[in-house]
Protein 1
Amino acid sequence: QKEVEQNSGPLSVPEGAIASLNCTYSDRGSQSFFWYRQYSGKSPELIMFIYSNGDKEDGRFTAQLNKASQYVSLLIRDSQPSDSATYLCAAYKAAGNKLTFGGGTRVLVKP
Amino acid sequence: DAEITQSPRHKITETGRQVTLACHQTWNHNNMFWYRQDLGHGLRLIHYSYGVHDTNKGEVSDGYSVSRSNTEDLPLTLESAASSQTSVYFCASSRDRADNEQFFGPGTRLTVL
């Protein structure tokens, strides 16, 4: 079992709709979680992080964390074609001080 | 502006050759990381460093080595390149801990024939 798992997609979303991405993690010692966006042929860039249970909103993005169920999600509201990218979920554990990435979910926003 | 650069951006080499990929950051970050990215595997950590003269193995370190002689640079060496090491390699840096935002370089696409 991978430490951080994501559905590889592609997740196809109409423009203006909500894209919902899920991520599960196996290590209960993971303390904080990150969402990186990666455009095709480019390097990953951080869009959000969350470390407390509940929701965290930043513009059109909302990260949700449920530590009891060991999942993290990312909602993209009012999806735009420019949101078409691969979204990488990552979990951080202080013991070892390392970030573990999932395989990424490819999102396609269709006009 | 501070940045992180990688060179070369593309490299084709033959099996058995030694290859070194360069990573240079001007953020003055203590932490530097090397990842490889393959389809279906996301980013996998190869080696990382928390400061000068510090190096640590990641989850896929076999066949790779790094050295850290200054804050700015963390070169990655493939001792004897294998076809299984064909991949895209990303270098990243962060300020203090790995959960501080990691800034990624543009990547190096390596092909081993």
Protein 2
Amino acid sequence: AQSVTQLDSHVSVSEGTPVLLRCNYSSSYSPSLFWYVQHPNKGLQLLLKYTSAATLVKGINGFEAEFKKSETSFHLTKPSAHMSDAAEYFCVQGGDSNYQLIWGAGTKLIIKP
Amino acid sequence: DAGVTQSPTHLIKTRGQQVTLRCSPISGHKSVSWYQQVLGQGPQFIFQYYEKEERGRGNFPDRFSARQFPNYSSELNVNALLLGDSALYLCASNLDRGHRTGNTIYFGEGSWLTVV
């Protein structure tokens, strides 16, 4: 069965320092991959998506992710964390069925002042 | 433009009761999907409807049902509620059937269901 693994349940960084949220996906010929963010008491917002175009994907709010097929990884990065980045981040893979999304368990990003 | 709207935002039910949750997709979007998100976990897929037909179903019991109306809005029904049904129920709206087209899938803010 397909699965998405987010390697850290919590990541804590200081404001102004880089952010790295790690994700490994299930091997697939041509995966669709996404990162979503969920702020407390808010809905899910798409940060970025990979759909077989450039391997380095730029998203909103300064986030980007790099698709590495050899490592089956799709890690999310940001050069400089901001307090407003504190939220839960989900790595998501499109399933073999067109309708299904497979979600990681989430990584809670904590920003220290 | 309005995003994905869900109602109610919060509700409390007792075990054994039935609940109906509602979702209005973004205008022009024909696909609605439902997800259950238990506290501390990622969303789990329940149903997808496209053009008023069920196109996909996750691993949920028959107590869960849904439908899509001609205006593409949708309802999720859960019968015989259990304590374990307490969760955030999310509705997702998509222009077409699925993720492979590359269209963005938009989510509502969800309906918080507490079963006591």
